[in-house]
Amino acid sequence: xxxxxxxxWVEQEVGAASAGGEFVREHSVFxxxxxxxxxxxxxxxxxxxxxxxxxxxxxxxxxxxxxRTLIFRRLKGLEAMIPISVVHWHLGPxxxxxxxxxxxxxxxxxxxxxxxxxxxxxxPHCSGKVTVPVLWDTQRRTIVSNExxxxxxxxxxxxxxLGAREGDYxxxxxxxxxxxxxxxxxxxxxxxxxxxxxxxTQDAYERAVRPLFETLDWLEERLRSSRYLCGDRITEAxxxxxxxxxxxxxxxxxxxxxxxxxxxxxPALWGYARELYQWPGVRxxxxxxxxxxxxxxxxxxxxxxxxxxxxPVLDFEAPHGxx
Length: 323
Ligand SMILES: N[C@@H](CCC(=O)N[C@@H](CS)C(=O)NCC(=O)O)C(=O)O
What we know:
By secondary structure, this protein is of the alpha+beta class.
């Protein structure tokens, strides 16, 4: 993989740790919002009104950040309004591509071979990482946003007047509580597994793994007495946690060395993860083939042979026993 510098592609190792052995995630570059009436959102500029068929979502089925956006697209019934492209699972020297492969959906909007071509189409002098997800505006021919946290909030409400499915996963009354969960879960779980996996020193690794499991222990406690994170109503905070839990035993325990405990060792968290997996429509957004082949095959500094383990055997369809 690599990075764009003033529109030029510079190769770089995947997950390269910066000074001190610590993996530091970069900020997203495009930060506009699709809104119901086209007025500006919390960041960026206006002019991105919600319209059926106007936007295209680029995702990787492997990526937990992109996965959130796919789940929200599905929960809100936006499939017909917002078509998708799916990149190949392998993140190689050219970054994400649309090389043919099982489950890959080519770039029908721009006919590009590489995701970075979409970034330079939006901004020929673009600098930064070329990440998924990307929300593309076919009208203005630019990227609205490449920040999953923002994209799911757009999907949550912006298309409601156009016939999106009912459901508010971030109600105003719970916003503060959701944000508090998100903050801790982002730092120690969603990004914590990457900080562990891409750590360049023993110390950086331990500084990621300990808080990760402290948070999982805390969540286990919470979910023993509460159906969802914020009580009896499922919210954005649950869906943001889910995409990391889903990948935990299949990838993060082995490949990223997050192995103090498995998800399967946490009865409440494991039942909760199965419940969310079995939520109407959600299992259709899950592709363990892409997930396992991406991580084990793309991070050759962590797994030089590229061999993808056959296990563990996981049954997300087993009754969850919650409720
Ligand atoms: N802040 C971004 C992060 C997205 C992200 O890091 N995606 C990874 C895949 S899991 C990616 O595309 N990485 C490519 C790269 O680092 O070059 C978001 O949540 O949308």
